Amino acid sequence: MTDDADDHGSFDERPSKSERKRRSDDLQALGEALIELSDSELDALPLPEQLRDAVLLARKITAHGGLYRQKQYIGKLMRKIDAEPIRAALEARRDRERVEAIRFHRVEQWRDRLLREGPEGVAAFRTEFPQIDSTAVGKLTERARKEQQTSKEKVTPAGRELFRLLRDALSRAP
């Protein structure tokens, strides 16, 4: 006779102990991520008052053992609530940070290209972003290139100003 207990539903459908442990660890890590959020980000999340208080207390604890126990407590509280809205909010935050990092690198790349190529870089910039005032970009690029030649610093005041101009212009660009 074969073991058909699964087909007849006589075995328990509960998750294994390992699966429960993985879920618990995941929820605790999610709870620990709440500790790192700013006050405004924490306030924006749909947290029960007890969990919010536990997170705020964890921020104040400096003793390693006490912080460990508080994190365990936060994990326990996390297991009692629906964590999906919190997970979604933290994922949205990570996505915004990724987009911001990509935007920052794009601005840096354009600034470096403009400083390296000069008028040719400005022409390429004008081609890619015709709606942006390339005259101001060109003047600032030349000023930054001149400062760069006479200064020992890698980034000069005009270079920082060029970065700000590009950041503002590219944030408005489609």
From TrEMBL:
Q: Which family does it belong to?
A: Belongs to the DarP family.
Function of this protein?
A: Member of a network of 50S ribosomal subunit biogenesis factors which assembles along the 30S-50S interface, preventing incorrect 23S rRNA structures from forming. Promotes peptidyl transferase center (PTC) maturation.
Pfam families documented for this protein: DarP (PF04751)
Compartmental location: Cytoplasm
UniProt keyword annotation of Cytoplasm present: yes
**CDD domains per record:** YjgA-like
Q: Which PANTHER family match?
A: UPF0307 PROTEIN YJGA
InterPro entries this protein is in? DarP (IPR006839), DarP_sf (IPR023153)
- Region Disordered: start-end pairs: 1-25
**Which key words tag this protein in UniProt?**
Cytoplasm, Ribosome biogenesis, RNA-binding, rRNA-binding
Q: Where is the composition biased (Basic and acidic residues)?
A: 7-25
Name by which UniProt lists this protein? Dual-action ribosomal maturation protein DarP
**What SUPFAM superfamilies has UniProt attached to this entry?**
PSPTO4464-like
